[in-house]
C-alpha cells in the first residue's frame, strides 16, 4: 500500500513540475540544436527551464564574437526552435542577468 501511495505522489509531483517547465513534452532547444556538453553546462536555457530560451538574456545563441550583450533576439526570429514553439508571439526577454554574457563579464572583472 505504501508503495502505491509513493508512486502516486511521484506522479503528481512530476505533473506539477511539468507545469513549471516550458520544455515539458517538447524537445528542448539544446537537443534540437545539438549543443555540445560544454555549452549546455554554461547556457542559462538548461538551468532556467521554466522559460523558453528566447525569453532568457545571454543564451549561447544570442552571443557572438563582436561583444553582443545577449539581449538581441533577432537570431531567435529565424530559429527553428522559436518557429516551432513560439506560437508567433512577440519575443520579450523575461530573465536578465543570469546569462553567459553576465558570467563572462564577471570573470573579466575578477581577472583584472
Short structural summary:
By secondary structure, this protein is mainly alpha-helical. It is 48% helix and 0% strand.
Cα end-to-end separation: 61 Å
Note the beta-strand portion. under 5%
Helices, by number, come to 7
User: What is the mean pLDDT?
Assistant: 79
Total separate domains: 1
Order of helical and strand elements: HHHHHHH
Overall SS class: mainly alpha
> Measured on Cα atoms, how large is the radius of gyration?
17 Å
How many individual β-strands? 0
Shape: globular
Uncertain segments are 13-18
Helical percentage? 40-55%
What's the story with the biggest beta sheet?
A: none
Give structural notes:
With 112 residues, the chain is an all-alpha fold. It has one domain. The chain is 48% helix and 0% strand. It has helices at 2-19, 29-32, 37-42, 44-47, 74-77, 80-85, 100-111. The N and C termini lie far apart (61 Å).
SSE map:
Layout: H1 2-19, H2 29-32, H3 37-42, H4 44-47, H5 74-77, H6 80-85, H7 100-111
Features:
112 residues; mainly alpha; single chain
